[in-house]
């Protein structure tokens, strides 16, 4: 009716329907600290659904869950999917139980609510905080302050939790307790105590084989190819085969790599030392993992059963310090690789092969003169067959000395200890007096030079001789005192030199493991003269001194 037109009023506007996402998050810290139903996934879901029942203008589109993810960053699968749906216009309303579920980084949380959601036309609701960006319950300024303060409190909680957890973990590390999620390859967590490690009898033989191959002369690449050729799964694949949910940023193809082998060869865990704190995250916001300097690692010795003995481990480490080239054919190091050096320039000598008149000559040569300057060094060469014979003869001689020492020790055990002890005491007194004499001469040396009684050249030469003599006297006195202590006891301690060399009493051929065990370095002089420096030099000198003393007593 036309006459009532002015009285009809405005037609009822249809309620806007919001396309809502329910977002649920629970971090590991929340699970450990709260241990209450209010923070659980199921309870969050129930609270949010009850809210939807009271608001028919909000349609439930989907639920996005991040279970076990920290709130200090937003790299979460559920949240990533939610933001994708927002950009696809599927979602224009986000509902959470409280602001802490959104996140504990107040900078990012504030930017999401005040900027990104506002630009995208997304309504945000945090039930427990009374926040609804589409509501008129508070003005924009008040809402901004409320959200900012709440987010700062949430981030402070995250920071405090991070500090407390890191402190607790470091305390466990210093106590030698294992706190990692997965034990290193070759070990497994003890079922009765996850802070302790036990040997994994299936993987440990592979670790031992890696060390054995490396010491025997195989290069790291050669070991990698052998492991892959044998079909042995790498540590990542092995752990997955054992039912572990283990992921690695690298080595996910199940194959061994040089990086993995090198890490095993340098890991002190295999000699029974607990090594932790090798990497750490930047802070509770930045979860990037960074390497820690070695001097800051937390190492506790003898916490678990070793897979590799200390001597084998030390041999492997000594090889890392040598400049070693492997043969291309079998990826094995040459017999003398890393052992032969020029006596003048100190550089490692390189193997050369020369073929003339149907004959093949193999030799080591110093290449400093050729590579740098004719004045840098002179020609130093040595044929490998002569070098092998020289080293073999030296080792055989040392073996004979060690056997003489061993035989003498047997005789000493049967001889009168009192007579020998008196001799040791007299010798010790003589050496100590000689040491005092050297110290006095050393003290007078500088004033005499300053007073002009001796020249600077004489001063330097005498000082060097005195220092050398004092070192020898100190070593001799220490050996005499050790021998005296042994005589006073029931047994005589073994000599490390004799122990190692006697193990090769029937040696007829050189092998790389023998060189690694017994030889320190080989120096080649101009003209082909060879200086062979053996390991356990101090023990050798003590042995020689003892043999000479016994000859004098006899």
TrEMBL record:
Q: State the source organism's domain of life.
A: Bacteria
Pfam families hit by this protein: DUF4368, Recombinase, Resolvase, Zn_ribbon_recom
Q: Tell me, what is one Gene Ontology molecular-function annotation carried by this entry?
A: DNA binding
Q: Ranges for the Recombinase domain?
A: 184-326
Q: Report which residue ranges the record marks as coiled coil.
A: 456-490
Key words of the record: Coiled coil
Report if keyword Coiled coil is assigned.
Answer: yes
For this protein, the record's SUPFAM superfamilies field holds: Resolvase-like
InterPro entries, per the entry: DNA_bind_recomb_sf, DNA_bind_recombinase_dom, DUF4368, Resolv_N, Resolvase-like_N_sf, SSR_resolvase, Zn_ribbon_recom_dom
Supply the name of the protein.
Recombinase family protein
Asked if the keyword RNA-binding belongs to this entry, the reply reads no
The protein's organism comes out as Ruminococcus difficilis
